[in-house]
Amino acid sequence: MHEEMSADLWNSAVRVLETNWTGHHMVPSRRLYPHQWSWDAAFIAIGLAYANPGRAWRDLRSLFEAQWADGRVPHIVFDPATAEEDYFPGPAFWDVPGRGSTGIVQPPMHAVAAWEVYRHAAAHGADSALQARIELEWLYPRLVAQQDYLTGSRNLGGAGLACIVHPWESGLDNSPGWDAALAGVPADPDLLSTYRRRDLANADAAHRPTDLDYSRYVGLVLNYRAEGYSDEGLLSRHTFAVECPAFNAILGTAELALAQIAGELGRAAEATTHRERAHRITAAIAERLWDPRTRTFHCRDLRTDRLSPLHCVSGLLPLMLPDLAADQVEAVLGQARSARFGLPEQTGLPAPSYDRTAPEFDTLRYWRGPVWINVNWLLRRGLLVHGFRDEAEDLRTAMVRLVHRNGHFEYFHPATGEGLGAPTFSWTAALSLDLLADRSVPAYARAA
């Protein structure tokens, strides 16, 4: 990779992160996403640690300062300096008493982020390493509480997997993987007369979720809000409940990161417990979300107890789990190499968010086809964990070239590479720094 290209990309990524820093936390983008998002904060911290580790820790701490007493980490923490009318759905809509946040969650990437930021700290000298130790000790019990919430209150299916109760919780908002489950959610177009979308003022409607989907998203929040965001008895009264392979792969990977953190903090018994939990989550994913006919992982709708038949990028991400059975690893790698996703050796581009060969494939609309850097970063991690270093390097190169040629966009056209969505997007910039730094991901030892 040319040094000049790498320097240009590094400098442009740092500028994006400087632009999107509020003085207290990072926003994904200034106009379209003017608050703090949960899993964004994790991805951002991983890359931001190379440029400004103090801000990386501050961003994570800012998010966890909004953690609920039950352990949930809200998917948005609202900036009180941003007016209600500048973003929908804002704090008044969510109506969370005493909190400037939403009532739903996002994938728990934060333990992975905390461990990665800690790993980077030594490169910044003794003072940075000491501060990192303090931050890790502060975050650890809060990260554990987050995992306890997701594996406890959100274990709606009873098999040890976390259940999402809104598509936004997946981070893959309008993925075709939710289509079947969303079909059972009442759609009330009149809701959008009462609650007006504001995303379309800053983004092309052809790139965003449809009004029909959005009315369902709003209705699901209203249903959850009516019960004070309680998870007790949720499966009997809520119309969307799904076990997502990507969300749960991240859940398991978080346990492995917590094992590393616990070991570093001298809590050997807790480290063992985290590794055992990761093993159980991996086994549950393999049992409940694997379809032997398609040879890949799919979302399970708990309302119907059926797997989605569609091939989404979420089905590739259990590759991050080191205890995944060898035949499943090979099958998932086969999916990633296939015409459905086409790793860079075929297309020259990172993997799309949805099956290229499917009739629902949409080159423009958000999670229904475009390329996203964060999920490809996770896929690369999985390739490294299982020793597929050539494929991982090809994917890294494809991501770096894509961003260098087109800019730090939110997502990208899966055929042309054109940038789509927000043009100065924080996690694209942050993960570019990580990809340029190219620190190898440690393969976790397999549990006994």
The fold-level CATH name is: Glycosyltransferase
Low-confidence stretches: none
Lateral strand order in the biggest sheet: 3-6-7
Task: Label the overall shape.
Answer: globular
What is the subunit arrangement here? single chain
Query: Could you give the distance between the termini?
Result: 39 Å
Radius of gyration: 20 Å
Task: Output the structural class.
Answer: mainly alpha
Query: Could you tell me the strand content as a percent range?
Result: under 5%
Q: Please write the CATH class name.
A: Mainly Alpha
In round numbers, the mean pLDDT is: 92
Give me the CATH architecture, please.
Alpha/alpha barrel
Biggest pleated sheet: 3 strands, antiparallel
What's the domain count? 1
Approximate helicity band: 40-55%
What is the N-to-C order of secondary-structure elements (H for helix, E for strand)?
HEHHEHHHHHHHHEHHEEEEHHHHEEH
In total, the number of strands is 9
Tally of DSSP helical segments: 18
InterPro entries: 6-hairpin_glycosidase_sf (IPR008928), 6hp_glycosidase-like_sf (IPR012341), Glycoside_hydrolase_63 (IPR004888), MGH1-like_GH (IPR054491)
Family: Belongs to the glycosyl hydrolase 63 family.
GO molecular function: Glc3Man9GlcNAc2 oligosaccharide glucosidase activity
Keywords: Glycosidase, Hydrolase
What does this 3D model show about the protein?
Belongs to the glycosyl hydrolase 63 family. It holds the Pfam family MGH1-like_GH. It comes from Paractinoplanes rishiriensis. GO terms for molecular function: Glc3Man9GlcNAc2 oligosaccharide glucosidase activity. One of its GO terms (biological process) is protein N-linked glycosylation. This protein is mostly helical. The chain has one domain (3-83, 101-176, 243-437): Alpha/alpha barrel (Glycosyltransferase), CATH 1.50.10.10. Helices cover 49% and strands 4% of the residues. The chain has 18 helices and 9 strands. The protein has helices at residues 3-19, 38-51, 53-64, 91-94, 110-121, 126-152, 167-170, 179-182, 191-194, 211-226, 234-237, 245-264, 268-288, 326-337, 344-347, 373-385, 389-406, 426-437; strands spanning 36-37, 76-77, 242-243, 290-291, 296-297, 300-301, 306-307, 411-412, 419-420. The strands form 4 sheets. The protein has a 3-stranded antiparallel β-sheet. Strands 1-2 form a two-stranded antiparallel ribbon. Strand 6 (300-301) and strand 7 form a beta hairpin. The radius of gyration is 20 Å and the shape is globular. The two termini are 39 Å apart.
